[in-house]
Amino acid sequence: MDPKAKREALRLLTNGMYILTSGAGDRLAASTVTWASQASFKPPLVMAAIQRNSNVLRCMREGGAAVLHILDRTQRTIAQKFFSTTKRAGDSLNGEAYTTGKTSAPVLRNLPAYLECKVIDIREEYGDHAIVILEVVDAQLRKHVKPLIVADSPWRYGG
Amino acid sequence: MDPKAKREALRLLTNGMYILTSGAGDRLAASTVTWASQASFKPPLVMAAIQRNSNVLRCMREGGAAVLHILDRTQRTIAQKFFSTTKRAGDSLNGEAYTTGKTSAPVLRNLPAYLECKVIDIREEYGDHAIVILEVVDAQLRKHVKPLIVADSPWRYGG
Description:
Two copies of one chain form a homodimer. Chain A contains three helices and eleven strands, in the order H-E-E-E-E-H-E-H-E-E-E-E-E-E. Chain A has helices spanning 3-10, 55-63, 76-81; strands at residues 18-24, 27-33, 36-40, 45-51, 65-70, 88-89, 92-93, 96-100, 106-108, 113-123, 129-141. In chain A, strand 7 (92-93) and strand 8 (96-100) form a beta hairpin. The first copy, chain A, is globular and about 50 Å long. The two termini of chain A are 13 Å apart. Chains A and B meet through helix 1, strand 3, strand 4, strand 10 and strand 11 of A and helix 1, strand 3, strand 4, strand 10 and strand 11 of B.
């Protein structure tokens, strides 16, 4: 296999950019993620591939819940805030205000839509990311938007 | 949960449109799919959620291989061809020429890039789609393109 062809073909897969949050007890984590897709209508499932050593994965494992937030295409700066380690200050995470959702995971206030989810399974046996199966248990659409996608951002994640 | 909010928030997840092909013995299947994403760098994995009663899933189960083809954003008519049952005529599937790849799955000739994959696992216990884990074993980039995405198409799949 030609590694360059593999990298470039994989980068033609289209992904959105999302903020995934989770919480377990006092610990909260939030991370920008891109490898996610719906996986079922009934029940409504989402699948996401998450870095195995990440805090957000640890929180999902312990807290059993996560919130997947959609970013508007004008919200690149918010995406960038969650490239780095999560820091809580008062009621904000990395400078973004949050509230508590129906689960143990924090809901960010300034994002146009989110899916609050129960963790159904975490499969770590396949590759360098865990495949997390999430069931949507609550959702909110605050504003109709055109979502931020990786191809329209300055970043790449894939290949 | 408000079903309308759930549907609309899920439809803000961004997906590309792909043609997924598979083969087992004499049987070939090809289908337009949208719920797919990379899932690991090492090994290079892709995850896809596929309708459980589909021929393409049956072929993947029996043949153990699949090819995920990227569509250029001008190739909506090719996407539409693979909404319906696969019909082979000579060396074409639903009117699209194919060749045999390195695996048992057919490779379509008129698409700009593809990922040839070995089926690693098929998980049917979660929802109304099977989650298929694929390892990329070969890839070709024939042309740099802007890929077709669901949001730029007349179709929706999700919610």
